[in-house]
Specification:
Transferase(Phosphotransferase), domain 1; single chain
Length: about 350
């Protein structure tokens, strides 16, 4: 009697990747697609790929047990849009070992090392913020198409490709009535489990994490994407200071007090050390007959708005640096006020 193919052992380690694929069902279709994708095979598994250019065109191979072949069919996603999912070059079923073989774009770095903060910098780097944004978009797109991602908090669910975190396709499956974890909740779990500890001093990351677990059911996908933590374009973040300042005119006294108790910027003017910014503080005192900017959260928003307007008009060379300067000086201001607008306790005070 022939042995059950699912019980046949994997080939010994000396078998190279190319050999594994040559005994796969539908190998002809796979190799046709492989040529169009310029996939390269290592001559020997231990030897690896002999040039950086070859590595870029190479594939990583996964040998998976008990993975339904149909589960890995195209998900109906647009590769040019859904950058949060690892692109699959080819899939085939190996009848000799009874396993599914998948070729992915080769990952050059582990997810944990890519996420890490080796320089102990205060703020999450833009590259990681953009990656979190793309990942959230991918989770939402899958959810809308009635798919979900298993073990979303598990670092093994992801790979680093195209210099960003991407979802492994074999962790994607069809949704069932029991699936209740939304993309927002899944992203929060991933951040809480794998990212937050690397950036303990980034108050914007902490605010974003809190925003994701906000029980307010009216938070939409676009509200998440508009969160300042996920915005890395300086002029877009700058525009949010002005918008939140203008909205602040409609905050009640109780809401203003709530902001003071939850966004800790007391004495913020004492932290202004840049002479050009100090000059703006002095000028404001002069034009307001000694009043100046209020030592409050709302006063800090006002200051940020004036600083941005001033440099946009008189010193455009400093514009690219403004957002970073304000983020260091007024830590948590932008993300704190943005998040407050969705906080049910804050809303109830309106």
């Amino acid at each position: 009697m022939n042995p059950d193919p699912m019980e046949v052992q994997e080939p010994p380690p000396h078998r190279n990747e190319k050999t594994i694929f040559e005994i796969c069902r539908e190998a002809r279709n796979f190799r046709t697609n492989a040529r169009s994708k310029a996939i390269k095979f290592a001559a020997d598994k231990e030897q690896g790929f002999d040039s950086e250019e070859l590595q870029k065109r190479a594939a990583t191979f996964w040998v998976l047990n008990e993975v339904p072949f149909g589960q890995l069919n195209p998900l109906g996603l647009n590769p040019s849009i859904d950058v949060g999912i690892v692109k699959t070059y080819g899939v085939a079923y190996n009848t000799l070992i009874g396993k599914t073989i998948i070729a992915f774009a080769r990952s050059q770095q582990s997810v944990l090392s890519w996420i890490a903060n080796p320089d102990n910098s205060m703020f999450v780097r833009d590259q990681l913020r953009n990656s979190i944004r793309s990942l959230y978009v991918a989770l939402e797109r899958l959810w809308d198409k009635q798919w979900t991602v298993d073990n979303v908090e598990d670092i093994g669910t992801y790979a680093i490709n195209e210099n960003m975190i991407q979802i492994m396709p074999f962790r994607v499956r069809g949704r069932t009535p029991d699936d209740e974890m939304t993309p927002r909740q899944g992203l929060q779990l991933l951040i809480q489990t794998n990212i937050l500890q690397h950036w303990p001093d980034d108050i914007e990351l902490a605010h974003f994490n809190a925003f994701l677990i906000n029980p307010n059911i009216n938070i939409r996908k676009q509200d998440v994407l508009d969160h300042p933590f996920l915005v890395t374009v300086p002029h877009v973040r700058e525009s949010k200071y002005k918008r939140l300042y203008e909205e602040g005119f409609f905050f009640t006294d109780d809401q203003i007090d709530w902001l003071e108790n939850h966004i800790f910027l007391q004495g913020w003017q004492g932290n202004v050390g840049d002479p050009s910014l100090t000059a703006i503080l002095v000028h404001q005192i002069e034009v307001t007959q000694g009043v100046g900017f209020a030592q409050t959260v709302f006063g800090a928003l006002h200051f940020a708005k004036v600083v941005i307007a001033h440099y946009h008009q008189y010193d455009i060379s400093r514009r690219p640096l403004l957002d970073d300067d304000l983020r260091h000086l007024l830590q948590g201001l932008l993300t704190g006020v943005y998040g407050a607008r969705f906080n049910e306790e804050f809303i109830a005070l309106g």
